[in-house]
Amino acid sequence: MRVKLIYSHSVVEKPILASIVLKTGIPINILEARINAQKGELIISIPASGEKLEEILNLFRESGVQVQEFIETLRIDWDKCIACGACISPCPTRALRFREDWKLEFIEEKCVACGICVAACPVKAINMP
Amino acid sequence: MSEEDGEIRSIDEINEKIKHGDAVVLTAEEMIKLVESSGLEVAAKEVDVVTSGTFGAMCSSGAFLNFGHSDPPIKMARCWLNDVPVYKGLAAVDGYLGASSMSETKGFEYGGGHVIEDLVSGRDILLRAESYGTDCYPRRHIETAITIDDLNQAMLVNPRNCYQKYDAATNSSDRVLYTYMGTLLPNYGNITFSGAGQLNPLCKDPNYETIGFGTKIFLGGGKGYIIGEGTQHNPTSGYGTLMVKGDLKQMNSRYLRGASFHRYGTTLYVGVGIPIPIINMRVARTAALKDDEIYVDIRDYGAAVRPDLRPVIKRVSYAELRSGKVTIGDRDIPSSSLSSYKMAREIAETIKKWILEGTFFLTRPIEPLPKHGRTKPLKVKGRELRVGDIMSRNVITAKPSDDIKEVAARLVERGIDHLPVVDEDGKLAGIVTSWDLARAIAQDKRRLEEIMTRKVIVAFENESIDVVVRRMAQHNISGVPVVDRKNNVVGILTTDDVSRKIVGGRTAQ
Q: Residue A7 belongs to what domain range?
């Protein structure tokens, strides 16, 4: 499960993520981080589901962190896509790859919506909603 | 004469078979499989034609268009289609629309390649032209909507298509590069490559025995012809190219796609496919060449130098490139293509279908492609302007231990904004600007070493001014210390020096 965490300036300096990792024992992976003294935004991947996942999300909320679940990341216009591959190697999380038949495949769970592929696509087939 | 020269079948014999529906046609991938399972001898005996294909960005593409005469008529001196400039150094209503010509209103987003795709799709295109008026062509302005059907001729004539193979790209620098080879991540973050390798037309007949002037081909979904070798044809190094022509009105926008490379410009993806008649053993062997037998260099685009001088990082096969990762040193670097293997396959399948249906016959070239020759670089006559020509040699520097207020006073006195900081040996250790000093004073800092920027963007004396100006723009800075190879400061170059001392590429008096 990937979620975006938004830290306001009042909580940005607290080691919230580290505390939750220690408390729950779940190895949360940070995919992308933008932090300064005023605020922070983290995109994380939580290798948990069901109650355990809910528990972790609630721990973030209780600590004053806003939690946004990723519903949709990229929109690929499959009629426009020419399966060239220009988006594949620039993708930092390997969320784009070729299938056996050389059609493009998008693995949404891996995507962190960084937008590199949007710029890399020569036929403007990728958009971020 | 080697054994491989002996003719197995002639093109006339193959055409006879096509007419009777007896020709054996395989795509290059199928030929590879057959050779693997039954051996080259059997494959050469059985197979009449091997089909190839490629679908990639080919910037040297474009179309000759004839608009027809209006009443009153105009000698179009300047002309635009959907705001994309059309080359008008031709007769009154002839023009050439180049794929990489960019829209004057939409820039990178839309260009000649897109206009070609829109024409082929049958869409309305805004034609605008201007003239100075002549006795025979009095009209001075025209603006109207046209479609491809309104044009007398729309001929795709591409001076360089279908590279035999193309060097792959990576980036050693510390920032993202946006190139015609796509997005290149810093510190060798990825590798991009182009070309269909084992499906690539010229790779299937690298001795140009069956491919030459007059060869009929698949071009943009229609039938076209090779009209000669392409520009930058470089057969000696194995980088041949083709010049091709075809009727745009018969083409299909599935195989002609306008494209734009981020911060580079517009281009056209062109589908090209060539049938290879298996006339002898050598052609049979090359038609079955596999990705792991076709090699290119990986070049470093991090160095802003002439393409052939870009450092070679590794020589690598298309098989390794297409596997998705290339090992360099102890790292696996992600690699991906810019041309579509899926579409290349589809094009090879399409020609195969045409031949089996009896709607496509093979042609014997009327002249072979040149088999020797290299591409020369452009020699620039006269001396290029270098950093050393306009930098200030009288550099004021400071030491890391200097007091900030004293340094600020020195800057004001001398009227300068950039101050390189050097250590006891005179080596560059950092830089401070007047802005850094203003902030430091406001924050009550004492010593330069507390505030100086330690990662300094520098220039060398023999570097081209254009390269260094671009470097300053990219890092959003207005000055760079000029250092020698031992990191001693020998000068400073600021945007002020550049704007004040250069007028139209020459140094002002």
A: 2-69
